[in-house]
Amino acid sequence: MSNYQNAITQLQGRINESQALNPEHIVRMRLQNRFQTGLDIARHTATVMRRDMAAYDENPEQYTQSLGCWHGFVGQQKLISIKKHFSTVKGRYLYLSGWMIAALRSEFGPLPDQSMHEKTSVPALIEELYTFLRQADAWELNHLYRELDTARQDGNKEKADDILNKIDNYESHVVPIIADIDAGFGNEEATYLLAKKMIEAGACCIQIENQVSDAKQCGHQDGKVTVPHEDFLAKINAVRYAFMELGIEDGVIVARTDSLGAGLTQKIPVSQQPGDLASQYNAFLETEAVTLDSAEDNDLLMKVDGQLTRPVRLPNGLFRFKSGTGEDRVVLDCITSLQHGADLLWIETEKPHIGQIAGMVERIRAAVPDAKLVYNNSPSFNWTLNFRQQVFDKWQEDGKALDGYKRDQLMSTEYDSSELAQEADLRIQNFQRDAAKQAGIFHHLITLPTYHTAALSTDDLAKNYFGEDGMLAYVRDVQRREIRGGIATVKHQDMAGSNIGDDHKEYFSGDAALKASGEDNTMNQFG
């Protein structure tokens, strides 16, 4: 007996006949609502993510991927598409981008990625994404139930058994979300409180960065200011306490370091003993040798290796790091975070260069052998230009003829069909799998791709619909492609839950149900 049928049998003896409830309908509704709370989701997806991390440790070809989604519907359609094309959602996650919340979800209107948006919008988007993913489950299972009913009516037992097997082994659209908590939106208590809300909404994985919370900048902008390790570790602890308090013991913490592009710090930590974390952090500060006689009023002085020095302080009170120390600071940040409770790393880089990433990871793994990265395949990079220049530089190093190529003009369309451009595109195509094997990258994400796809598709439709093509622009470029591509949204009433509602009405009201899916429903035109 199938699990589905067994669940029906177990219910049959527990329902009062006078209630006129159908056990099979109850089982169907339960299966359509597998995850009843956000904590149920967080617990399930944490297990999934830990399993995937272990699989990657065994074989780096088993890396994972995600796309950033700024609305529940976008996330839902992404997972439906993945399942349609690849038959499984294994290894595919969602990414929740603080950048996109700031740009698209703030009540203030569009904002830069500087933690100015409402912190409550972060757990709100997590809850929204999972609401839409759960609805995707209900939608797909509803179609299976209808197919099962038809097979039974037709007396086709073989088909009915096949559908029952699909129901018993159903794979949910609910996948892990890597959720961006920025720099924690305040002190460690504020970080803890927000982390709790995010976990209660369903987050199994929280990403936190080592920038100053009230001076946070986008990872690919200038003016980034980092905090001492002690401050960052306190926030990692705060997130871990939130996971543990809520019973999500497998919760995942991604520690992001912005030190590669951050040349400033807000404060100088107090060293308790030689060589401690504070001492190591302070060793990166740019200083000037001084004497007591040459020191000026209100100077801040430090004794370093027996020498009296003055840290370079900017007019805004911030302190500057020595030039060229970025990679060393990244390595120390990563090792320290992993040794104090983080599970995964995020190194924000200025370009997508496997050699650069691998060099840092090799140093980190000397101290923490199983160190793994989440990496931002950022739209802030000019991928075409970066990789064409990487090929150019490699060919130049190898002594290959570069006649006809100008390095600073390689973005030009005149190179699109060239051998160099083809080699660059091949490297871009293989970037994720190569970086997973060579640079320890467990998870590849694109932070804000759907921001760009929404703008691009809207531009295409607006240009043609309001131009000469008129209605043909929508029919040819949208509806016809939906029909021929098997994209479920062509039946938008069904996608929004109309058929689910009709079936529920029939459960509740029987033959008296007023349903929307009769012969006059224009959705029937799509077969």
From TrEMBL:
<dbReference type="InterPro" id="IPR006254">
    <property type="entry name" value="Isocitrate_lyase"/>
</dbReference>
<keyword id="KW-0460">Magnesium</keyword>
<dbReference type="InterPro" id="IPR039556">
    <property type="entry name" value="ICL/PEPM"/>
</dbReference>
<dbReference type="InterPro" id="IPR015813">
    <property type="entry name" value="Pyrv/PenolPyrv_kinase-like_dom"/>
</dbReference>
<dbReference type="InterPro" id="IPR040442">
    <property type="entry name" value="Pyrv_kinase-like_dom_sf"/>
</dbReference>
<dbReference type="GO" id="GO:0004451">
    <property type="term" value="F:isocitrate lyase activity"/>
</dbReference>
<dbReference type="GO" id="GO:0019752">
    <property type="term" value="P:carboxylic acid metabolic process"/>
</dbReference>
<keyword id="KW-0456">Lyase</keyword>
<feature type="binding site">
    <location>
        <position position="180"/>
    </location>
    <ligand>
        <name>Mg(2+)</name>
    </ligand>
</feature>
<keyword id="KW-0479">Metal-binding</keyword>
<dbReference type="Pfam" id="PF00463">
    <property type="entry name" value="ICL"/>
</dbReference>
<feature type="active site" description="Proton acceptor">
    <location>
        <position position="218"/>
    </location>
</feature>
<dbReference type="GO" id="GO:0046872">
    <property type="term" value="F:metal ion binding"/>
</dbReference>
<protein>
    <recommendedName>
        <fullName>Isocitrate lyase</fullName>
    </recommendedName>
</protein>
